[in-house]
Amino acid sequence: MTFKCKNCGGYMVFSPERQQMYCSFCDGVDCEQQTGDASLTTCASCGGELTIGQFVSASRCPYCGNYLIFDERVRDSFKPDEIIPFKLGKKQAVEAMEKEFKKRKFTPISFLSEKTLGDMVGRYVPFFLYDFRARGEYRGTGTKVRKWTEGNYDCKETSYYDIERVMDVDYDNVPADASEEMPDWKMDLVEPYQYEALESFDPRYLSGFFGEVYNNTAEAYADRARQKAEASANALLKDSLAGYVSLNPLSGSVSLADGQIDFALFPVWVYTYKWGGRDYLFYVNGQNGKVIGETPISKRKVLLYALTMGGIIYAIMLLIIFIMEVL
Ligand SMILES: [Zn+2]
Ligand SMILES: [Zn+2]
Question: What is the per-residue pLDDT for 76?
Fold first, then answer.
């Protein structure tokens, strides 16, 4: 499918700067969708012969330069549930790269040259977003210590607690990229994306960019998301045990129940830098310009109940140290 300008008939692309469709020929913003005209083997615009990869949903014709969206790769089971449209245009992505790498002294000069940076391409990377409910449980005993001084005495009181924790955490939209070509750890670093910007899928957002469908089933990528949720739930459970001087666990576990799974497309600017016979790949988050990021969990609702069920069993002054007064 392609989008044509109602004004001049030119091909239109989605402009991240304007957040709407845009015709670079006449500055027009009104477009009409033309479906059914993009086959996987022939360019709808110039008739050139195309070789389209197995997972490609949107690409650019190497002959005429027009962007093409392949109908059969954006419908039925391949239709994304949601998409985060590009927020950063190419110019802003280039600026993000320059800002990040300008200070580094040992990069080759051509690394940040206008010519090579101008070759950055905008890609929608396929992600699955998983919902989980995590249950964390902990039973054990713990101690807390209070210290004070009374005259010539240093006093120390140790309190013993029975601890029981039951914690439910709802995770929404834990991401795992579904592209074999994209290195997992780099995609993890390009995150986080702000999910407030998730929109229902509309093929217009693909116009002007490259796109990909998921390369494998949602189950095939689920473990990566499960590990993220599990690590987070474990950390929350551990946080809830802060404040004890010592802990003696009797039992503890985190278990996950699977929930809904959505297929989504996230925007990434990709910069391929060729140097010394190798390809160096850099990614800029197309939503916030982050060149390197941290692994997020989109949203978490923590329901921590039955915080301390046992409470204090007994608290005794355990130790009194007599300090000899030196005269
Ligand atoms: Zn136009
Ligand atoms: Zn063409």
Answer: 93
